[in-house]
Amino acid sequence: MAVRALAQNIANEISLLITAGELEPGQPVRTQALADRFGVSRSPVREALVTLAEQGVLEQIENRGFFVKDGASELVVEPVSDEAKPFEIANEYQQLAEDWLKDRIPGEVTEMMLRERYDLTKAQLGDILMRAVREGWAERKQGYGWRFLPVAKTPEAFEQIYRFRMLIEPAAMLEPEFKLDRTIIEEQRRIQQRMLDTDIEKLPAERLLHNGALFHEELIKMSNNPFFHMSLVRVNRMRRLLEYRSRVDRSRTVRQCEEHLVILDLLERGEIVEASYAMRRHLGGALSKKSPVAWSWSHAAEEKT
């Protein structure tokens, strides 16, 4: 039986969760939780789960649901070549993202306008818009139509976001209410170490970027100042689309993971001020190395227009 595009996309996302260690062998896979996470109904999620069960990634137990099988992480993601496309998405989704980055479409649109512009069916457009929602740059308007959210469209905006992060992330560690959360530290250590051990060479660029953003968003929660966290999540969404378009340097990702682990070590030892300084150095280094990538992509894109 053919699997609809949305269900296949969800199956791919679940596979990445397994490979990244967010879903471990023996762990139940909850349909409603995944539907909430991906912003879809239960039906395509269940279709995705059935597909993964047929592939041997999940085990379906009658009256109990779906569970991750032992060895599932070895089945779901092939090694990713550095020559692979940095933003592996459907052509129509890529075109929509490109048009928004280059201001070819307005910030508020109707589904009819998008269907006519890209020659899509209602179901195809729905899949694309749900992907944009998950990536954080689109939202449904109340009542009718869709709104595309502000993103970092230029190298200057990209740099400004990093400079903003260099201010708030180190400062968050020095907040009066900052409190270490051992659960966050242990989970992020597990994710970062797993990336170093295996994931950097096998995960798609999108998932590597997601794990990097998650590290920073989880650590800033420990400030117990919700405005720090809200601000970081917001600016991460604004930079994500442009950053996904750049080529991910996997050797640099190794260095970033190592620096993440150093910051976790400092926090765990209670050396909070030192961790704050380390975070600022880490973000400053990321800016100096990432900006040229974004710049080169931006200029190359302009030359093609």
TrEMBL record:
Keywords: DNA-binding, Transcription, Transcription regulation. Residues 4-71 form the HTH gntR-type domain. GO terms for molecular function: DNA binding; DNA-binding transcription factor activity. It comes from the Bacteria. PROSITE patterns: HTH_GNTR. SUPFAM superfamilies: GntR ligand-binding domain-like, Winged helix' DNA-binding domain. This is DNA-binding transcriptional regulator, GntR family. The lineage of its organism: Bacteria, Pseudomonadati, Pseudomonadota, Alphaproteobacteria, Hyphomicrobiales.
